[in-house]
Design brief:
There is one protein chain. The chain has nine helices and two strands; from the N terminus they run H-H-H-E-H-H-E-H-H-H-H. The chain is an all-alpha fold. The chain folds into three domains: 33 residues, no CATH class; 95 residues, Orthogonal Bundle (Helicase, Ruva Protein, domain 3), CATH 1.10.8; 41 residues, Arc Repressor Mutant, subunit A (Orthogonal Bundle), CATH 1.10.10. It has a two-stranded parallel sheet. Helix 7 crosses helix 8.
């Protein structure tokens, strides 16, 4: 049996002060610090795509986000982290009414009004090419290779593609073999 525990405490020492010492040492065997989403904006396109893939079959459509919606999301601090994105995507899909594009108006109800950026939401992100399928695919391959310790067989298994496809995509995107 493997136990995975998570906390929102900023420092592991804060957790040590609140748990029984023996329980703390059992849980703190391997510690992985993952910064909040507001500090890793590069994950946003991947998370949006993931949750669209998860919820699209349930709602019978596979929309995209327009540039204004993406800009708004990119400038939003996401206090609820990944759960907030998950809820936002499902909520937007559930209320989309047969549109093929999720716009800024579709996602605003799922964001905390006091945390919305002031003025035009597209102030920072104007180039939506950063959300292209090629960039997302390259990023996914790089991350899976990193997580698999550069094990190509394991990476291709995780990605659900053949090793030959992985090598072809690595060459295409200039990822070192």
């Amino acid at each position: 049996m493997r136990v995975i525990a998570a906390t929102n405490r900023p420092k592991i020492s804060d957790l040590n002060a609140t748990l029984r010492q023996d329980l703390y040492f059992r849980l703190a065997r391997i510690t992985i610090e993952l910064p909040p989403l507001r500090e890793r904006r590069e994950d946003l396109p991947l998370l949006l795509d993931h949750f669209l893939t998860v919820f699209s079959p349930k709602y019978g459509c596979r929309p995209t986000f327009d540039s204004d919606a993406l800009a708004l999301l990119y400038n939003y601090p996401f206090p609820g982290n990944v759960r907030e994105i998950e809820n936002l995507v499902e909520g937007a899909l559930a209320t989309l009414h047969e549109k093929e594009v999720i716009g800024e108006r579709d996602i605003r109800p799922y964001l905390h009004p006091d945390l919305l950026p002031q003025g035009k939401s597209g102030a920072i992100v104007t180039d939506v090419s950063m959300f292209s399928l090629e960039r997302l695919e390259k990023y996914a391959i790089e991350q899976v290779l990193r997580l698999s310790g550069n094990n190509k067989s394991r990476a291709s298994e995780i990605l659900g593609i053949s090793r030959e496809s992985l090598y072809r995509k690595m060459k295409l995107y200039g990822i070192p073999l």
